[in-house]
């Protein structure tokens, strides 16, 4: 793991674990608890595409695996490639529609979210590398029920919702447009609903990014409250499994904690909706995906979308 700048202040260090808990659910592991609701896997780098020396890339995956099922062999329902610049405190999130139709070595053409099912975190990271041109250093997988509990544990979040939408199963009364407050269940529904959105999978991915922004903002606003960080840490400690050592977790947490809200940029990979192998899929705009990768690889900043 690359060293972080030495100018990080005491206040930043106090809040760093809280940012990780809420924004990416990264904490020191407790391997004695099974099954885990959060899995953090460090991907061993074997060459690949070079990134900037100050940039850390994390692939965040939301899993709909049920309790008792192996999350690391499930199909991801939310895919966000997150880059953090430890020098400039900038961050970016590149959303990938889960139904993106791509080549998976050894399995032919498949939806990109099935890479996790076929080959685990390493295959999921490789699929992202082939599409975007950025190799994530970490893959973090979280079950949705735990995501709900985590949002509730920080007191809910606020997001800017650009349009009204609903879903007969997840949210019958729907979400109104404008600034809205979300508890755990509503944050999950806001992030997962697709059929009630005009842009389908693309709009859902954008809503996932709005949710991450809301979580990050909530943590930053509450980090100085006595006991707030500690309660969050204890919540996640009981539910996590990882191959990452405590020292690396601490450094990774510092990277997340540095992020300035005004320096967060986001984009969702576009594409064309169609059908293949008897199923509805997204044919991703590979040229755009590569352009986004080239744009953000070295500094975790998107100049456009």
From TrEMBL:
Identify its protein family.
Answer: Belongs to the LytR/CpsA/Psr (LCP) family.
Signal peptide from the UniProt entry: 1-25
Its keywords, alphabetically, are: Signal
Task: Note the Pfam families from the entry.
Answer: LytR_cpsA_psr
Tell me which residues make up the Cell envelope-related transcriptional attenuator domain.
Answer: 75-219
The organism's place on the tree of life at top rank = Bacteria
Q: Read off the InterPro entries from this record.
A: LytR/CpsA/Psr_CW_biosynth, LytR_CpsA_psr
Its ancestry begins with:
Bacteria, Bacillati, Actinomycetota, Actinomycetes, Propionibacteriales
Q: From which organism does this entry originate?
A: Nocardioides piscis
Q: What is this protein called?
A: LCP family protein
């Amino acid at each position: 793991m690359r060293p972080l700048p030495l100018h990080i202040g005491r206040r930043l260090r106090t809040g760093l674990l809280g940012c990780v808990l809420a924004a990416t659910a990264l904490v020191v592991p407790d391997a004695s608890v099974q099954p885990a609701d959060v899995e953090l896997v460090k991907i061993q780098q074997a060459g690949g595409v070079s990134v900037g020396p100050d940039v850390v890339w994390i692939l965040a995956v939301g899993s709909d695996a049920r309790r008792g099922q192996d999350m690391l062999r499930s199909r991801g329902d939310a895919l966000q490639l997150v880059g953090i610049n430890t020098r400039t405190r900038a961050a970016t999130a590149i959303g990938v529609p889960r139904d993106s139709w791509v080549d998976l070595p050894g399995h032919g053409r498949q939806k990109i979210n099935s890479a996790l099912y076929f080959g685990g975190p390493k295959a999921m990271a490789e699929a992202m590398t082939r599409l975007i041109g950025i190799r994530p250093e970490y893959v973090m997988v979280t079950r949705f029920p735990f995501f709900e509990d985590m949002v509730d544990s920080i007191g809910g979040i606020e997001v800017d919702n650009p349009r009204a939408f609903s879903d007969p199963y997840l949210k019958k009364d729907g979400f109104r447009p404008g600034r809205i407050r979300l508890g755990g269940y509503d944050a999950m529904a806001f992030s997962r609903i697709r059929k009630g959105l005009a842009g389908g999978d693309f709009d859902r991915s954008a809503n996932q990014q709005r949710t991450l922004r809301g979580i990050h903002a909530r943590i930053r606003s509450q980090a100085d409250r006595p006991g707030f960080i500690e309660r969050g840490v204890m919540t996640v400690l009981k539910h996590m499994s990882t191959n990452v050592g405590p020292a690396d977790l601490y450094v990774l947490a510092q990277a997340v904690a540095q992020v300035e809200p005004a320096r967060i940029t986001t984009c969702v990979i576009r594409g064309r909706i169609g059908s293949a192998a008897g199923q509805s899929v997204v044919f991703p705009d590979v040229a755009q995906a590569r352009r986004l990768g080239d744009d953000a690889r070295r500094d975790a900043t998107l100049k456009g979308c």
